[in-house]
Each structure stands twice: as structure tokens, then as C-alpha cells.
Amino acid sequence: MQPTARTNQDRTEKTRAALLAAARALFIAKGYAETSTPEIVAAAGITRGALYHHFQDKRDLFRAVVSEEARHVARAIGERAPDSLPPLEALVAGGAAYLQAMREPGRTRLLLIEAPSVLGLAEVRALDEAHAARTLAEGLAAALPAHAGRDAGLPLAALTDLLSAAFDRAALAIDAGADPDEYHAAISA
């Protein structure tokens, strides 16, 4: 009986992966509003019933796509800015990793343009705080331990929020054609 369970699990994972891949491609190409669930299931090669077995609705599927993108970004930051680096070096490396990860085609549109309008600012902020902004906050706390926290005179949460916004703005500029080397140089400085 075990092989059948594994086969069902494999089928479930393949179906979910196909839905995520098809939805991602369509959300990038057409945007969330212009993408229909019939298009998604056709592109994934599955039934509409399978879509609703895995996801409550199109918005839930979009949330899963965006969450996966955010995990990829956080993973890229973690790989380029390991705990073994000195804190300031890790901050610089993490910033560069963020900008590089955001160069994945369509990622900037999904995370920075579509997600806030579809999911709302509060949900996007929570997603960011669980991933890229979390790594930034940890890096700042490590690099600025004497200044971390409101009692020491530096509101770390506000600093994280401001720097996160600056990184997002840089990712949007690079996506629009700005020279990434200029932004990497600014991060290093």
C-alpha cells in the first residue's frame, strides 16, 4: 500500500507545481486581473476541479506564487550572506543578493507591483517580514548591536522598513533598465 501513497503524493506535488508554474507565467505575462482560472488550468494541463482542490480561489493561488517567490529571495540572501560573515559584510552581501534575486524575470512585478494591489499592504508586509525584511532586520541587529532597539536611540524596526523600501525601489529601477552596477556600488558604499 505504501507505493500507492507515494504515487498519490507525487501526483499531488506535480499537480501543485504545474499550477504554480502556469499561474506564475500568466501572472507575469498578463497580470493578476487579466489572468483567468480557465487559462491557468489549460496552461497547467489539469482540470479546474484540481485547481480548487489545491487552492481556495485565484487569489489563494496568487498568494502561493508570491510566497514561493519571497522564499526564493530569502534563500538567495541566506546563501550569499551566511552567519559566518562579519555582520557588515553580511549586510552588503545580503543587499547585493536581494537585488540579484529580484532580477529573476517577473519577480519584481509579482512581489512589488502585483502583490500589494492583490493581497493588500498588510499581507505583503507580513510576507516580507517573514522573508527578505526579516533577513535585513537580523543583519542590522547584528551589525549595529550597540544601537539596536529604541532604548539605545535607534528604532531598528523603522530603519529596517526604510532600508527595505530603498531596496525595493532599487529593484524596480533595475527592472526598468537602470544600471545594476550603480546600485551594487551604492550598497557597498
Question: Please, could you describe this protein's structure?
Answer:
By secondary structure, this protein is mainly α. It is 77% helix and 0% strand. The chain contains ten helices and no strands. The protein has helices spanning 2-30, 37-44, 48-54, 58-80, 87-101, 107-119, 121-130, 132-143, 156-175, 180-188. Helix 4 (58-80) packs across helix 6 (107-119) and helix 6 crosses helix 7 (121-130). It is elongated. The model has no long low-confidence stretch (mean pLDDT 91).
Question: Which structural category fits the helices and strands?
Answer: mainly alpha
**Strand segment count:** 0
Summarize the biggest pleated sheet: none
Uncertain runs are none
SSE sequence, one letter per element: HHHHHHHHHH
Nutshell version of this structure?
It is built from ten helices and no strands.
Can you give keywords for this protein?
189 residues; mainly alpha; 0% strand; elongated
List the helices and strands and how they pair.
Layout: H1 2-30, H2 37-44, H3 48-54, H4 58-80, H5 87-101, H6 107-119, H7 121-130, H8 132-143, H9 156-175, H10 180-188
